[in-house]
Design brief:
By secondary structure, the chain is α+β, with helices and mostly antiparallel strands. It contains 5 helices and 24 strands. The strands form 7 sheets. The chain has a 5-stranded mixed sheet with strand order 6-10-9-8-7, with no helix packed on it. The protein has a 4-stranded antiparallel sheet with strand order 2-3-4-5, with no helix packed on it. It is elongated and about 95 Å long.
Length: 434
Amino acid sequence: MSGTPVSSMLLVFVASIIGSFGAVMLKLGAGELNKGFWHILNVKLASGVALFLASSYFFVAGIRHGELSVLYPMVSLGYIWTLLWARLVFKEAFTRQKFLGLALILLGVFFVGLGSQPAGKIAPKPLFRDPVHDGAADPALVWNRGEKKWFMFYTNRRADLRAEPGVAWVHGTRIGIAESADGGATWKYRGTAEIAYGQPDYTHWAPDVIDDGTKYHMYLSVVPGIFHDWNAPRAIVHLTSDNLLQWTYQSTLPLASDRVIDASLCQLGTGTWRLWYKNERDGSHIYYADSPDLYQWKQAGVAITDRAGEGPKIFRWKNRYWMITDMWNGLAVYSSGDAEKWTPQPEPLLQEAGQAPTDRGQGHHVDVVVSGGRAFLFYFVHQGGADLVPGDRLSERRTAIQVVELQYQDGRLGCDRNQPTRVLLQPPAGAAGR
């Protein structure tokens, strides 16, 4: 868990107030005992006990999703309320020592609260826009071992193209590169990947990049040319690089059909590498292939058939495998204990429009980076509404990359794109990493 939700803090805050009222009622009820022991059964004492029970309820509700080390010290706020009620109800004196004690309590709660702040800088919105065509999509992040920076590869859609009909603007695309030197909080344009494969008009889409510790591997969706519709053949090719800039072709993967795109890789506990992808010949379901070494691949099965989708992203977090797919109406979420049987989550992610400028559309085609126990979801969003360029009917093609931190509660994933996101991507542990 990263940080403590404000809602949890508010619940504990309410618990401290209710508990302070309980102390007052116990004090009032205790006065009845002067009339005899059996006066212990009086309304004031019973009310005090009931208020403490109510306080406990709010406290338990608060600590359910927050950090105990942050929330439990907040209970000490009850001393402040109790001091106030003691003055108002029992006419007890305020003294300099009591004020000093209150100040120390408040100071301690303040510093403990600072300790719950997630690490990192607040990421801007948009996180990144491509300065060439303004059509950045399909982000994929990897740590550059040599330069000690994070690289973001992305499909550089030609959103500013006007002359050609149909969907030619999403063809003929290159793979853009952005870089971050501050742990993923801010990004600047670096250029395009030098990919030695195919003809100059070949279309490059949706890369996934893996670092095996000695060499980088890219699995790239390729369309052989520029097309005005979606009916062209597509393949996934394997490329390698020593520096993330220049790429050498290795092979075309032998997958389930001639219409496959959107690779996502994850290494299983057995050491096997698994590659998931979208098979457009079978209802845009998610298929997978396996490899022992990232070079030799064999078609292995079908992972998701309950709905169509694209851009699968598979990662391991909270002792489970997760898959997030773009279903063109928000992001579908699946979880699995073995990467074989997948359970869908009822609630999609990023289905509702965001509130911040440049983030007012549904989220699409993601990457997820797990770092320092936290998980960050990078996604792209089409521009719309107030973010459109006045008088430009094609400006809805323009896209921006955004980021939000994932939250895990009760076995499900959630996120709040409208809250500030502090980002700190640490260099991957060990020799290899995403």
